[in-house]
## 1
Amino acid sequence: MAKHTVITMPGDGIGNQVLPESLRVLKAVGFDAEYIHADIGWECWRNTGNALPERTIELLTRHKLGLFGAITSKPNKAAQAELRPELQGKGYVYYSPIVTMRQKFNLDICMRPCIGFTGNPLNYIRKKAGGGYDEPQIDTTVFRQGTEGMYSGVEWTNPPENIRGALNTHAKFKGFAGVPGPDLAVSCRVITRNAAKRICTAAFEYAKKRGFKGVTICEKPNVLRETSGMMEEVAKEVSKNYSPIALWSTNIDAQLMWLNKNPEDYKVIIASNLFGDILSDAFAGLVGGLGFAASGNIGDDVSVFEPTHGSAPKYAELDPPIVNPIAMIFSAAMMLDHVNEGQKADRIRKAIADVVREGKVRTYDMMRIPGGAKSISQGAVSTVQMTDAILEKLK
Ligand code: NAI
Ligand code: MG
């Protein structure tokens, strides 16, 4: 029997192109695992009205470890139109299966490393005051709370009477009291102390392991006094257990402005769901963009690892596939870290770093050329060739 069982969910579009590449790499480092395929995504929605099938949930519940590619999500109207005719009008509502999965399994610690590989032509370059340029070494991991905040899903257009009534009791709601129901949309930003504590603790544990001097909490407590206020309060509380690691505090707006000033100073950043989503994409943009952005959704029981990117439908039909598999392979390495196979993970990261540093093998995104059928003739490698180059370094 294999030592580990991994539920593989390629999903939609390029998820189907990159996930198999990560399995080739896991095999090359000798990861002892059995893989069980599970469906997720758009076809499931179209055929059954449910993008996250029961069997997939059962498999994740049983085996607790998942690798996920990407899914396609569409606004509700478009989703309804693409349902099989016999399912239309039956009350099916489209929910993003990844958001559902995070909430269902309480995958509340979303870990997003943004690490610049030397030699990546997409890395951020900064102009020096005295002339010339430098390339700061960015090694930032965003700890994004994955289940609550603005993405808790507690929202209404035209809130029901009792909700309206409750809102009317808040002094600040007076200004909105006259807005007709259909013209009023409300999303609740829910923060719980326990979840805040978990994300803060995960961030400090990571900082301790890596030997970093400080952790930044990035919120907006001067305006979002209650929710950001609680995040910050909990971060302060948690930090007391991790002396001498410092707790720094930034506001989300200022933090984004500072991205092009001193991004290398931020090693570990904690943020609530929406802010963490924005922040991790912003940092990813400094180190190569979506082709390099990996993530882990880590719960107490179940964990799922996935590239940050989506299904990129415009590239999904190209033969050969041209998208960059590094984000997916890097996510698989995070899975290895999670199951105490860190040495294998390090070998993978080193192989990626070697390929990027040499600069001979680059997917289209790394060449800053448009993606498309012509990319290969312009010197870009295919998805498979990029993996081949990584495998070569693992020999
Ligand atoms: P996307 O991430 O799929 O693609 C945006 C652009 O980024 C692509 O057009 C491409 O230029 C580039 N890109 C993405 N992955 C790349 C890779 N591996 N290598 C090179 N370039 C890459 O986001 P988009 O276009 O906004 O959404 C497409 C679909 O994916 C939508 O249905 C969206 O809802 C879904 N989505 C799913 C996510 C998930 O499964 N976790 C996350 C984000 C979007
Ligand atoms: Mg995002």
Note: Residues 5 and 34 are 5 Å apart (CA to CA).
## 2
Amino acid sequence: MTSDLEPRVVHPHRQVTSINTLHSLARGWGAYDAAMAIAEDLEVAAFLKGQPKKLFIGGRWVEAAGGKTFDSINPATGEVLARVAEGGAEDIDRAVAAARTSFDRGSWRDLPPAERARMLWQVGDMIEERANEFAQLESLDNGMPINDALLFFVPMAAATFRYYAGWATKLDGATQQISAPGKYLSYTLRQPVGVVGQIIPWNFPLMMAAWKIAPALACGNSVVLKPAEETPLSALLLAELLQDADVPSGVVNVVSGYGETAGARLASHPDVDKIAFTGSTEVGKLIAKASAESNLKRVSLELGGKSPNIVFADADLPLAVSGAFFGVFWNQGQVCSAGSRLFVQEKVYDQTLDELVKTVAETRLGPGIDPMTQMGPLVSKAQMDRVLGYIQVGGKEGARLVAGGKRPEGMDGGFFVQPTVFADVDGNMRIAKEEIFGPVVSAIPFSDEEDLIAKANNTIYGLAAGVWTRDVKRAHRVAHALNAGTVYVNCYHIADPVTPWGGFKQSGWGRELGPYALDLYTELKNVIVDIA
Ligand code: NAI
Ligand code: MG
């Protein structure tokens, strides 16, 4: 990389090592160059203006059956960003029927795998070509800092399509020796599950759509995707790209709408073969129940977390502090794997908190679309109110507020909350147990490793964990003892399409990404042939 590819606006988090690592991962995916050219003008203006955005069903852009629309709000200003068709049960039924027709006709699954691979790769290219547009949409719709969208989320979405493009030609099975050698031949086939419903949240709208759609398509399924009502826009733009890439009609359908109506219908639909959900644990349980009460459709769930981020006294402290900051405040804390319980060994507890509070004080809040913004608004007024409610609870429970705790002054239009640090939190307090999903960290002191493991694992969740130590034996020992789907050692939030993602306990069912997602989107068939 030559120096003219350096960001025109240096990332304000550059003191935060981990986020720079994420951006250098993006370089590795080859998406960095396109992402670098930050547009002067808002390219998305045309996309946002005019008619309400429509639903994408059966390869056509259609209005909701009931003709209803809803507003997508810009959380930095509270103003309406776009009007979007409000899909309901009837629209889900239409979309499922379109997906079923495309699946039964074999219009996607029966294409040569190399042809499917080529199209998926092309979608990755198209995302990269329109990186600015996607980044602006993500930032305006969700509130996230544009640099994170440009340098991480959009490249990650492109990389996910390219990664699964590779798998389309590699879905092989096994031949087995069974107990009567020479008499029978047994071999396995991986076949698509069928019609797949996918419900995604608002925290990483485009990346979540890519994590869902790309592996489902690589395996030959047809899809109905419902984006979150807070952030439907980038999924609709992605549908345009899939259409431009000549993915056949009905193979991917995008129905924007509310969870209680469109989402619930998708989860209970008798003709949906599998549902993949990312969101709250509460709704995850409803999805599992809807499956059980309808057709036992396959279910994968990526749910909440209350992840421990653990600083041992022998850690590289500046690195650990920046990791503690980044671990919980990235994306305004709206990350399922946020390191929201910060465990610090007593010997370095005061020093770590002091340094963390200093970093917090330097953090610049603003609209995500401003490239100098380090932290944007929360996604919605409801989410802001929920987070402010938890801050009140923390105070009442007797936790010591050492930073933040309020809405920042003079920014009343948007849904901003200051990065907030509670010290001396007890593991039984609600702020230590419940997912807040906002910029609030609960710091908890611990004495030794044994004490730490018991405290860290004392949660209904098990999505992620971080360990900061210079002792390599301790690092592995603790990583093995923690009940979490991902353990970061001396880093946090590092993600790549290659590695598995999912949680222990009530953080969900199954693993996305890597080859593991292939298990979610295929049925394994055993064929036994009498050959004697
Ligand atoms: P949510 O779980 O209600 O929403 C996620 C998705 O599920 C959205 O697309 C929504 O429309 C859909 N949905 C909602 N109710 C549904 C239902 N009955 N049937 C089918 N689909 C349904 O999350 P929400 O309300 O946006 O946020 C509430 C809390 O959930 C957050 O404060 C956070 O703690 C947690 N959450 C966790 C996420 C994660 O990735 N772990 C993502 C989003 C929220
Ligand atoms: Mg909800």
Note: The mean pLDDT is 92.
